[in-house]
Design brief:
Layout lengths: L1 E5 L5 H11 L5 E6 L5 E2 L5 E2 L7 E7 L4 E2 L4 H16 L6 E4 L3 E4 L2 E13 L2 E11 L15 H5 L5 H16 L6 H7 L6 E6 L4 E9 L5 E4 L5 E4 L4 E3 L7
Parallel strand pairs: 1-2
Antiparallel strand pairs: 2-5, 3-4, 5-10, 6-10, 7-8, 8-9, 9-10, 11-12, 11-15, 12-13, 13-14
Helix pairs in contact: 2-4
Length: 243
């Protein structure tokens, strides 16, 4: 894998997509920046990170072939790759919060953004953005967030952390199968009664029972009725102040 380090960039995902358009020499590229001025989250949100303290990077993988209908499989695999990377540093109580957040001890420690490159109905390449809170000592304006350093009291080398993460992402995404069992056992709130807010801010409680193949969240109400939600159609009440 080719690695590129940048001091500052608007978005590593945007930089990497432009790089790939101009050069076809590599099928795996990792880019990380000490500072992102306009980091990208899912559905047009922004990822904010203090300069020099956190991991903000992207991975490009070419020569893949999956149906667009199963794109969420990449999302699941990347989340598991992040979990694997953080487990190597003994970060406790790691969970995946649907659809793209990584939690540690019940607080957000990172997130991912998967941007496919299509040819017809096939995903032939993908750019994967990753943000992890690393060396922040405190996040007073983000009550639902934490960092590696805040949890362990240690400082981390961001470059080596990103290289390990990029290697895990490539290995996992290029694998033949998704570890669905592990994904579900790591899923925040699975089998538990959770509080949600619908898009119109109406609250309700339901139990998370599954994530569908297309990435929609499946919940079960107390009367046994199941309901399926698309991304951004609901939020977890516990994280409503962190949108």
């Amino acid at each position: 894998m080719l690695f590129i380090k940048l001091s500052s960039v608007d978005s590593t995902n945007s930089f990497l997509k432009q790089w790939v358009q101009q050069s076809k020499k590599h099928t795996a590229i990792g880019v990380w920046a000490e500072h992102q001025t306009h980091g990208k989250g899912r559905m047009g949100t922004q990822w904010h990170a203090t300069k020099g303290l956190n991991l903000t990077g992207s991975v490009y993988l070419g020569n893949i072939s999956i149906d667009i209908q199963t794109l969420f499989e990449i999302n699941k695999r990347v989340c598991l790759a992040v979990i694997e990377t953080l487990l190597a540093h003994k970060i406790p109580e790691l969970q995946i919060k649907w659809p793209n957040d990584i939690l540690a001890k019940g607080k957000k420690i990172g997130g991912i953004l998967v941007e496919p490159i299509l040819r017809g109905a096939k995903v032939t390449d993908v750019v994967i953005g990753c943000g992890i809170n690393v060396n922040e000592k405190a996040l007073p304006n983000l009550p639902c967030a934490t960092s590696l350093s805040a949890i362990t009291g240690k400082s981390y080398d961001i470059e080596s952390l990103f290289e390990a993460l990029a290697a895990n992402i490539e290995h996992t995404v290029r694998g033949k199968h998704t570890d669905d069992k592990r994904y579900l056992t790591t899923l925040y709130g699975l089998g538990e009664l959770c509080s949600f807010e619908r898009k119109d801010s109406i609250p309700f409680t339901a139990t998370i029972v599954d994530v569908a193949k297309d990435g929609k969240l499946v919940v079960e109400h107390e009367n046994g009725e199941r309901e399926i939600f698309e991304e951004k159609a609901l939020v977890f009440t516990a994280f409503s102040r962190c949108r």
